[in-house]
Design a protein that fits this description.
It is a single chain. The chain has three helices and 24 strands. The protein has 307 residues and is an alpha+beta fold. Among the domains are: 64-125 and 134-158, OB fold (Dihydrolipoamide Acetyltransferase, E2P); 162-238, Elongation Factor Tu (Ef-tu), domain 3 (Beta Barrel), CATH 2.40.30. The chain has a six-stranded antiparallel barrel. Strands 3-12-8-5 form a four-stranded antiparallel beta sheet, with no helix packed on it. A hairpin with a 2-residue loop joins strand 6 (88-94) and strand 7.
Length: 307
């Protein structure tokens, strides 16, 4: 009986030692981690709002008509091409004879197609539509097809000219500020660098939408295949730094981080906005190169042993 009791006390003693060792190690590790934290450096970063917009393009164009009856042979069938003034666009044949030649009266982009809105697609129409616009379907004319005299065989979009756009976007305070300044920055593709555009006029559509009439700084040839475009407005750019979200802590309702100053950590208030991939943009409170404790929830203010 005594041997059984001794064994029980022995194993209780061993278990107690194990528990005490674990408790001591955890306490030591927490203390060690608090004075030897993993730190990161605040990296410089520029943040801006990116607002998707839908727009409708405006340009000056001229209908190109057949000069006679017959079969048309295009010089550039099924293509959009840039041609100089006087360039041959096609020939009209009747049997083995050439009965007419079609030439460009001006320099520009020629497309052997139309969408039926030529002559009616105007600024006043787009501006008064409030966005209720359908994209007209483009119809391509076939090479070696019969045509009548005076029949439309394509159109010429004059070059050079300023490409204009009526667009609709969600309204933000930063966008409204840029609109009042008469300048916006726009991206054709998400990874493109933003380009500056001139705002001719804008109109607020309630408190959350805006209608914009602007000049675009580009006019690529292929764009005349459709009158509808989708771009991204790049507005409200701010310079600051980026840090991992794990650095952030809340203290008495104040958002901040533990910043390293010498051999001490100090709570520093920050302002900013969340980014993708669990990062945070700091617009106020930190500068590029500042050292920050990575795991803010386990950090504390006080002396550190960094090296």
């Amino acid at each position: 009986m005594r041997s059984v009791i001794k064994r029980i006390w022995y194993w209780l003693f061993v278990l107690g030692m194990i528990v005490m060792t674990v408790v001591f190690y955890v306490a030591w590790y927490r203390y060690y981690s608090s004075i030897h934290p993993e730190i990161i450096k605040a990296e410089p970063f520029s943040y801006a709002e990116e607002i998707p917009i839908v727009g409708w393009l405006l340009w000056d164009e001229e209908m190109i008509n057949s000069s006679s009856e017959g079969t048309i042979s295009y010089m550039y069938p099924g293509q959009i091409v840039r041609i100089p003034s006087g360039a041959m666009l096609g020939q009209i044949r009747k049997g083995s004879s050439i009965t007419g030649k079609i030439r460009a009266g001006k320099e520009g982009y020629f497309i052997p197609a139309t969408d039926g809105r030529e002559g009616t697609w105007t600024y006043s129409y787009l501006w008064n539509s409030h966005g209720n616009i359908s994209d007209p379907e483009i119809i391509w004319y076939q090479d070696e097809s019969p045509v009548r005299k005076g029949q439309t065989v394509g159109k010429l979009v004059y070059q050079p000219q300023r490409l204009k756009c009526v667009a609709f976007a969600d309204l933000t305070p930063e966008l409204e500020r840029d609109l009042k300044g008469g300048r916006l920055r726009i991206k054709q593709q998400p990874l493109d660098l933003p380009q500056e555009v001139t705002v001719r006029v804008f109109k607020l559509l309630g408190s959350h939408k805006v209608q914009i009439y602007m000049d675009l700084p580009f006019f690529p040839m292929g764009i005349i295949g459709s009158r509808r475009v989708s771009y991204t407005l790049y507005t409200g750019e701010k310079a600051g730094v980026t840090i991992p979200e794990s650095c952030l802590v809340m203290r008495k309702g104040i958002k901040g981080v533990f910043q390293i100053k010498g051999n001490f950590s100090e709570f520093t208030r920050v302002e900013g906005a969340p980014l993708k991939d669990r990062n945070f943009f700091v617009s106020r409170g930190l500068k590029p190169g500042n050292l920050i404790i990575l795991n803010g929830s386990k950090a504390r203010e006080g002396r550190l042993k960094l090296w």
